[in-house]
Design goal:
Chain lengths: 271, 999
């Protein structure tokens, strides 16, 4: 059975629905307080996929995801390594990492995404929305047809909720921007209902560079996104479900956020 | 040595916060600031080398893609000529500083005491233009902070650079172990003065009762033996004040009321409105329910929240609180502590450790466009609104609890004191390891643990202060800022600890702090012993009495058995939650408080809890003589409807709703706004209770203070009906209609009224105000017992007056009903927006000539006389019919009729869609078009029905439905009456008006 590790604690708050997503996909999951990882109670190498859920780790103080990523980078674990060093080994073993919202912010702070240079130097940042405020709204995201990651297999367009105040992806410079495009590391982009990528507010809710809603690394093992697929496990979570249902257009499972978890679990089961 | 770090956004990046300040200064204050820059400043009070400081700053505080960083230097540039530095005042929560300390500890892998402040943050605002100090003060007080909790520095550039010395809010106080003896052998006048100056909020009779207690010979003898002063100590007097506060003891709801109706001559005596009306109604309902084996009422009124049974494995806890006084002083702090406080009520229900499922918020403000001059200490309603919304946003979002339902009511009588109702629902397992989770067992010898935050001077006298009016001299220590992260860690820990069986009972530290929480728990074993010096403090300098009554946030009092203490403490350490053993439960009969071994408080528990004298209060009522306006003539219905759509009490709340995370946990089914554009407003919220089933909850609220201007009884009934009909609209079912149907309803009643205690000079209309309170309670009793919908918990706030410069602003008497009911299957619920072209549109329920206090009359500045009345028998008949139609899934959409009547309800059903609707008013009979369109008669819905279902639907509804027209493809809203076109407006136009009312 595919084993999924979900990190929580210190203000992370989407761990339960993320667990439900893996459960639905047929995987086992373990929700662990980060201190359980630090003190060795939970061993990363026992798992196939590591998850950083959404939430407000350390209240978004200093910068979203920053204090938690410092902990991952600098805090020495019981075994003398940092968790970042464990993550490095985990990836070298061919395993997978998913970060959603606050988790995506951590992955970006840690340099795990997009990591073009391959040395975990931060190359992008998630900044305050152009609107200046936190917003909860649904968006359409277009999946890059050329992206190489099992998470997004056979996907084209998805509706998902965003719930963030700091989701504007800023890329360090034009050169890096070019490389991100060339390497097909853009996973998701904000789009209109037809699937046309757009920078228009509120379709793009935060003003992200290149309208990016999610990134992958070069190997496709690390995937991070601002929207919350784990909050769309049922068609009945969709804001327009009642109209769609009344008109005979109820969405199938592969049209909900569940599909991302089904994809990765099926991939891991096969390999 | 103190060092500093400064970070700021790289100049090429857009800074939305800075732009927003610039814009607000220009539009709201007419101050041209020029370009604005916002920057963060950290004062680091921790010994480290320059290299280490620089490494820490660069690696931990800076985001190198977006930020620049400076150490031990202030950013300066010729582009900026003015600077405002905003720091916290000493002792005010600085979460960001604490998080930075955590980062420092992790970075250095050093064992830094995180409970002590080493890093202080402030925000620096740079302005391009040279601003006067008075302009800077205006900007600071309006947009950047609150002088009650913030320190401001205003700096203009005199030479080439800013002359800035950072203000560091270090608390430097020395230990103060003073315990004062208070002599109560005073004249009556002196006793009253003592109560005033010490903010005890005790009246003369209560002061006498306390004096008499200390005069009792048995008490005297005992105190002599113990070596205690014969007169009370300061802490003892404070304990009485907290325990006997209106906030904690609900003295007015327990008062004996002499009610006289001068119009009818009727006279009655009411011995405690709480006993006769609130609890009284639930007692009657419980009998009704149990006759039908509907045994879902598990615990009512005697815990932090009411508990009902969801299924064999789960209980639902539901509590709604008010936080009006703190929100009037500091809107952000008041609201965030309101939310976090009511969260703790749920965390501390039964054994404790409930899962927090959702939050609600109902807010009453003065108009954001309020133009009257502000009184001393009064904050402009727009600032109150912005601050309160931000507080609820942070309190809910940062705790990971969705804010799913709410209301905003505008009325300038809320411009002095706003009403801020915060609610939380939670799930408790039926049992923890075989122990009933709803019980609160305590045995002699069990340990008393304080867990969570530390104690500071913040929040001293919250309970007694909220039991008086607000005036220019209100105590600043009552203001506090919450720390959602501290509480999130605490609630995560409590869930695990309760599941492991390590917590035996729990309660929260809210009003009255430890004195109340321990005082209440001690009733179980009949005694408690507390060692106050063990209580961890934020800083030195608190007197023992201050430690005992401080309402510092994020603290729970937990009961742990001695044999579990070790395991409990280890778990707390692992979760980074501070927990301290501070005493134990005894059977001494006394609340025994010691400081370093010396007894400083020894009060008999029986007297403490039962000794407060019952108040006697007069209520007097005379039916007011009111008239319907006669001069209103409608020239253009289109204009009227558009004005209504953008009026404050009808227009879209999208700007508020989207700031709240209403979907975290992934259980949301009906959100506040639905549809493909997310712009269709809904009635009740619906969510699943878990991811493994489709069982769910419908959550609604009813509040309509305006009707109380005509008739407080009908206002109360109307608000009750509003909350019920919203749940019926989404597909909910009335309770107790079948044997053992398992459909629970659980209601919190929240009364917020102006001071109703008659005084010939200070409160000459007190009798009339009290009469309104009685009438509201009569309405509650009649509605609740008729529908078998019980109050399970509630709250009253009895002093909602703002007094300054000789002016008093009093809120209108207000009641909020917050209801939750169980749904068997959330997949069958009904939303409010129209679905399909060709669906038939009906009004169900009858319209009466009831334009009194309507939004329509308000457009003309009229009140009127014909208040909407609830006809409860007819309402119930209608709701039963709707339930039947929903069982057969005949209804495609349903929306309740409230503010603005039929016209507004119909508009709300289309304005989020690309559809239109064509309506003919003739089906509604013979009244005027104004009544048909705008009357706010209760117990009515607009529904749409697929053509193939209309026959079956009409058969069920019999004569209670009125076919108005059809959903059409053209996006137009059309109303005709007797062949005359009354309204014709494009859907888009309606949408624009509705969305532009509150910007």
């Amino acid at each position: 059975m595919v084993k999924s590790l979900i990190i929580t604690g210190f203000g992370i708050n989407c761990e339960v629905e993320l667990g439900a997503a893996y459960h639905n996909a047929g995987a086992s999951f373990h929700i662990a307080h980060f201190n359980d990882v630090l003190d060795g109670t939970v061993q990363l190498q026992d798992f196939d996929i590591l998850n950083f859920p959404g939430g407000f780790s350390f209240g978004d103080d200093i910068a979203s995801g920053k204090v938690m990523s410092n902990k991952i980078k600098f805090k020495k674990m019981q075994n003398g390594f940092t968790f970042m060093e464990e993550i490095d080994r985990f990836l070298k073993d061919g395993k997978f990492i998913l970060g959603i919202c606050n988790g995506f912010q951590m992955l970006v702070q840690l340099g795990l995404l997009p990591d073009i240079q391959g040395d975990f130097t931060p190359e992008t940042s998630l900044e305050k929305n152009d609107s200046g405020k936190f917003e909860d709204r649904w968006v359409h995201v277009k999946v890059n047809p050329k992206v190489q990651t099992p998470f997004l297999k056979n996907l084209d367009l998805l509706d998902l909720p965003v719930r963030h105040g700091e989701g504007k992806l800023v890329i360090k410079d034009k050169h890096l921007q070019k490389l991100i495009i060339e390497h097909e590391l853009i996973a998701l982009q904000y789009a209109d209902i037809e699937g046309q990528v757009t920078g228009q507010y509120p379709l793009n809710p935060n003003g992200a560079d290149l309208n990016i809603a999610g990134l992958v690394n070069k190997t496709g093992q690390v995937f991070g996104l601002m929207p919350h697929p784990e909050a769309f496990l049922s068609f009945y979570n969709h804001p327009n479900w009642s109209v769609l249902k009344a008109n005979g257009k109820a969405l199938e499972r592969h049209q909900t956020g569940q599909v991302i978890f089904d994809n990765i679990v099926q991939f891991l089961e096969r390999n | 040595m103190l060092s500093s770090i400064q970070t700021y956004l790289k100049p090429h990046l857009k800074d939305a916060k800075a732009l927003n300040i610039q814009e607000k200064c220009e539009h709201q204050l007419h101050i041209q600031t020029g370009k604005v820059m916002v920057s963060k400043w950290y004062d680091v009070d921790y010994e480290m080398s320059d290299v280490a400081l620089s490494d820490f700053a660069n690696q931990c505080l800076r985001n190198e893609i977006s930020k620049e960083v400076l150490t031990n230097t202030l950013f300066d540039s010729p582009d900026y000529k003015s600077l405002i530095a905003v720091a916290q005042l000493p002792g005010v929560t600085d979460d960001e500083g604490t998080s930075a300390q955590m980062a420092l500890a992790d970075f250095l892998n050093a064992d830094i005491d995180l409970k002590v402040q080493h890093i202080y943050t402030q925000t620096l605002y740079y302005f391009e233009n040279n601003l006067s100090e008075s302009d800077m003060q205006k900007i600071a007080h309006n947009f950047l902070g609150n002088p009650l909790i913030h320190h401001f520095q205003y700096i203009t550039k005199s030479s080439s650079s800013f002359n800035y010395a950072p203000y560091v809010p270090k608390v430097s106080l020395h230990t103060d172990e003073t315990v004062e003896i208070i002599n109560l052998n005073l004249t009556d006048l002196q006793l009253e003065q003592l109560s005033d100056t010490k903010v005890l909020a005790l009246n003369l009779e209560e002061m006498h009762a306390i004096r008499n207690y200390f005069d009792r010979s048995d008490i005297k003898a005992q105190r002599s033996v113990l070596g205690l002063s014969l007169q009370p100590t300061d802490i003892e007097l404070e304990v009485f004040a907290q325990t006997w506060s209106e906030h904690c003891k609900h003295k007015e709801f327990n008062a004996e009321i002499q009610y006289v109706n001068k119009t009818t001559g009727e006279q009655k005596t009411i011995n405690s409105l709480f006993k006769t009306h609130i609890k009284g109604s639930t007692d009657v309902i419980k009998q009704h329910l149990e006759k039908n084996q509907n045994n879902w009422l598990v615990k009512v009124f005697n815990d932090n929240a009411g508990l009902v049974k969801v299924n064999e494995n789960q209980l639902f806890a539901w509590k709604v609180e008010t936080h009006n006084s703190p929100s009037a002083l500091d809107p952000y702090g008041g609201a965030i502590t309101g939310i976090l406080g009511v969260n703790r009520d749920i965390m501390g229900t039964g054994i404790g450790g409930a899962e927090l499922l959702f939050n609600t918020n109902v807010l009453c403000f003065g108009s954001p466009n309020y133009e009257k001059p502000l009184l001393k200490g009064q904050i402009h309603p727009r600032r109150i609104m912005d601050g309160v919304v931000e507080g609820i946003e942070d309190g809910g979002n940062k705790s990971g609890i969705p804010t799913v339902n709410g209301s905003v009511v505008f009325d300038d009588r809320f411009a002095g004191k706003p009403l801020v109702f915060c609610g939380t629902g939670g799930i408790l397992p039926m049992q923890y390891n075989g122990k009933n989770a709803w019980e609160k067992p305590i045995d002699i010898g069990d340990r008393i643990i304080m867990a969570g935050g530390r104690v500071g001077k913040d929040g001293i006298h919250g309970a007694t202060f909220s039991s008086t009016e607000i005036n220019e001299h209100s105590p600043m220590s009552a203001v506090q800022i919450g720390s959602p992260i501290t509480q999130k860690k605490l609630s995560d820990f409590m869930r695990i600890a309760a599941q492991k069986g390590l917590i035996k009972s729990s309660t929260d530290n809210g009003a009255g702090g430890l004195s109340s929480s321990i005082g209440e728990l001690a009733e179980t074993t009949h005694g408690a012993l507390i060692h106050l010096e063990k209580v961890p403090l934020k800083y030195a300098g608190l007197k023992p009495w201050e430690i005992f009554v401080s309402e510092s946030q994020e603290r729970m009092t937990l009961v742990v058995e001695p044999e579990n203490l070790n395991a409990f403490m280890l778990l707390a350490t692992h979760y980074e939650v501070e927990a301290t053993e501070i005493g134990e439960f005894t059977n001494s009969g006394y609340l025994d408080v010691r400081y370093k071994g010396k007894i400083i408080n020894y009060i008999e528990l029986d007297f403490l809890h039962n000794g407060v004298p019952q108040r006697k209060m007069p209520a007097e009522w005379e039916v007011p003589i009111l008239h319907e306006p006669t001069h209103i003539k409608i020239e253009n219905y289109n204009t009227i409807l558009l004005r209504l759509m953008q009026s404050l009490n009808i227009c879209s709340r999208e700007n508020i709703i989207r700031k709240y995370d209403h979907e975290v946990k992934g259980k949301s089914i009906i959100k506040p706004l639905m549809g493909d554009k997310g712009q269709s407003p809904q009635d009740a919220a619906v969510m699943r209770t878990g991811h493994d089933s489709f069982e769910g909850l419908a959550i609604s609220n009813g509040i309509m203070p305006k009707f109380g201007d005509i008739d407080a009884y009908e206002m109360s009934c109307g608000a009750f009906d509003e909350a019920v009909r919203q749940i019926i609209a989404v597909g909910g079912k009335l309770p107790n209609t079948q044997v053992n149907d398992g459909i629970f309803w659980t209601v919190n009643d929240n009364f917020c009224v102006p001071d109703s205690y008659y005084h010939s000079e200070k409160n000459p209309d007190g009798k009339e105000k009290l009469a309104k309170l009685v009438q509201m309670c009569d309405g509650l009793y009649d509605m609740a017992t008729f529908f078998d919908i019980p109050m399970t918990s509630g709250k009253d706030s009895m002093k909602n007056d703002f007094k300054a410069e000789g002016v008093k602003i009093s809120v209108p008497p207000t009641i909020l009903y917050s209801m939750v009911s169980k749904l068997d299957d959330v997949r069958n619920v009904v939303t409010s927006d129209f679905k399909t072209v060709g669906d038939w549109v009906y009004q169900i329920g009858e319209t009466y000539d009831e334009l009194g206090a309507s939004e329509f009359y308000k457009l003309y500045g009229e009140l009127g006389a014909n208040v909407p009345k609830v006809r409860k028998e007819q309402a119930k008949d209608l709701y039963l019919k709707i339930m039947k139609a929903n069982e057969m899934q005949l209804i495609a959409s349903a929306h309740d009729l409230s503010e603005g009547g039929l016209a507004v309800a119909l508009a709300e059903c289309v304005l989020g869609t690309d559809l239109g609707v064509q309506i003919d008013l003739n089906a509604l009979g013979n009244t005027t078009d104004a009544v048909k369109l705008f009357a706010e008669s209760h117990s009515r819905l607009v529904v749409s029905v697929k053509p193939q279902n209309s026959k079956a639907f009409e058969a069920i509804m019999e004569n209670r439905c009125f076919k108005l027209g059809q959903v059409i493809k053209e996006p137009v809203f059309e109303v005709t009456s007797n062949g005359n076109k009354r309204i014709q407006i494009e859907t888009k136009t309606l949408n624009n008006s509705w969305r532009n009312g509150l910007v």
